[in-house]
């Protein structure tokens, strides 16, 4: 068994996951034209990725102990190949619906397999290694965005953009079939015990927090183009700047985790995310990029540190606990997305009634929506502040389990 090789396979699989989000976003206009789809239909197509992801994490999280990470990654591989090929050969709305669900299910399968696999392989360094693994979600988004931008500019069809993802898919498939997987020696493998420990107050508390951290990060990223289109800054540069900083930050998370502990990192992250959203709700022009840097540093560690917290402080929940955390986060994003859209519509109407017109209406609506969204990290500051005050008790509890 070679942990470094399995870690590499996990990272490549996560790159595929991220590329599916980035490239699909880049080809939406072409899909709309080619298949005569309305924005509502495109919305349903996109929602299948967010539905397939938590479904896979919840179902396969329950089956992790009996199936093991190799079978789960094989399921991910089959899902990615099937989803990509079905997308390439789709001839309408329902073809895209089915193919996107397959891809979403494959993406969730990657997380369901790899989070507990990495926690098991690196028991003394769980949160640090989970951060290094999750480098490749923002990293993969940057890769996918650049590929999509280049191929669109070079007038390659959307099918060719989808085809590029088969290359990293083949690479992680080769790695998982040519590497020996370990037995789960460092996480709880009794599914009954896992389920019992899901109903502890601390786990329920963290699930609620996960819905807020995921929405703060992914909800803002998904709407950044729409919200900041009239701010005087380029939405695509904002996205690339934010995701690039997140990738770098996660790579060097070990130093912060060592000094501040996982809970301390989460508390500082919530503070920076709140400040970043406040600045974004006020900034225009070049100042938007500075606000983006602050926000990116805030949300950078949310997802991996939340999963790492469960691995460190609630190990009895096992792979199931980690999978349900990820599933809850992604499901929350799907729930909050239409609400965020409603806020934009609501604030646009208010701006028009106040006498604004043209781009001023969109800027006002976008900034007011960002102000609303700052509520999420503000609540998290309080929540993580309580956890930080209890950190000694948490450490003691983790060591006695």
Structure overview:
- The protein is mainly α.
- It folds into two domains: 1-181, Up-down Bundle (Growth Hormone, Chain: A), CATH 1.20.1250.20; 190-401, MFS general substrate transporter like domains (Growth Hormone, Chain: A, Up-down Bundle).
- The chain is built from 19 helices and no strands.
- α11 (201-227) packs antiparallel against α18.
- The longest helix has 36 residues, at 318-353.
- It starts with a helix and ends with a helix.
- The mean pLDDT is 88.
Give the gist of this structure.
It contains 19 helices and no strands. The protein is mainly α and 401 residues long. It folds into two domains: 1-181, Growth Hormone, Chain: A (Up-down Bundle), CATH 1.20.1250.20; 190-401, MFS general substrate transporter like domains (Growth Hormone, Chain: A), CATH 1.20.1250.20.
CATH topology grouping of the largest domain: Growth Hormone, Chain: A
Content-based structural category = mainly alpha
H/I helix tally: 19
Number of strands: 0
Basic shape: globular
Can you tell me the CATH architecture of the largest domain? Answer: Up-down Bundle
CATH-defined superfamily of the largest domain? MFS general substrate transporter like domains
Helix content class: over 70%
- Please report the distance between the alpha carbons of the first and last residues: 27 Å
Average pLDDT works out at 88
**Tally of separate domains:** 2
CATH class division of the largest domain: Mainly Alpha
User: Radius of gyration, rounded?
Assistant: 21 Å
Topology order in helix (H) and strand (E) letters = HHHHHHHHHHHHHHHHHHH
Strand content: under 5%
Low-confidence stretches: none
**Major sheet attributes:** none
């Amino acid at each position: 068994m070679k942990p470094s090789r399995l870690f590499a396979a996990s990272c490549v699989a996560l790159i595929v996951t991220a590329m599916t989000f980035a490239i699909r976003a880049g080809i939406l206009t072409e899909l709309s034209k080619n298949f005569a789809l309305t924005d509502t239909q495109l919305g349903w197509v996109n929602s299948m990725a967010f539905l397939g992801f938590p479904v896979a994490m919840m179902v396969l999280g329950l089956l992790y102990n009996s199936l093991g990470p190799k079978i789960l990654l094989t399921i991910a591989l089959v899902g990615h190949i099937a989803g990509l090929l079905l997308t390439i050969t789709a001839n309408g709305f329902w073809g895209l619906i089915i193919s996107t669900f397959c891809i979403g299910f494959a993406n969730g399968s990657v997380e369901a397999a790899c989070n507990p696999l990495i926690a098991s392989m690196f028991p003394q360094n769980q949160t640090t290694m989970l951060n290094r693994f999750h480098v490749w979600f923002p990293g993969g988004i940057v890769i996918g965005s650049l590929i999509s931008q280049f191929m669109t500019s070079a007038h390659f069809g959307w099918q060719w953009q989808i085809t590029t993802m088969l290359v990293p898919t083949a690479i992680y498939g080769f790695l998982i079939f040519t590497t020996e997987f370990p037995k789960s020696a460092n996480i709880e493998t009794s599914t009954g015990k896992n389920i019992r420990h899901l109903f502890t107050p601390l786990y329920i508390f963290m699930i609620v927090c996960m819905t807020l951290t995921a929405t703060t990060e992914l909800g803002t990223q998904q709407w950044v183009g729409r919200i900041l289109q009239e701010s005087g800054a380029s939405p695509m540069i904002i996205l690339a700047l934010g995701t690039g900083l997140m990738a770098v930050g996660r790579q060097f998370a070990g130093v912060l985790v060592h000094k501040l502990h996982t809970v301390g990192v989460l508390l500082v992250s919530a503070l920076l995310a709140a400040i970043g959203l406040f600045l974004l709700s006020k900034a225009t022009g070049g100042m938007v990029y500075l606000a983006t840097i602050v926000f990116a540093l805030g949300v950078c560690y949310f997802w991996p540190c939340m999963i790492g917290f469960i691995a460190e402080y609630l190990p009895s929940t096992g792979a199931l606990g980690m999978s349900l955390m990820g599933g809850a986060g992604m499901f929350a994003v799907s729930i909050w997305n239409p609400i965020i859209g409603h806020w934009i519509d609501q604030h646009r109407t208010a701006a028009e009634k106040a006498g604004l017109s043209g781009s001023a209406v969109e800027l006002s609506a976008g900034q007011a929506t960002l102000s609303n969204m700052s509520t999420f990290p503000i609540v998290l500051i309080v929540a993580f502040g309580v956890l930080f005050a209890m950190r000694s008790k948490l450490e003691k509890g983790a060591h006695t389990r």
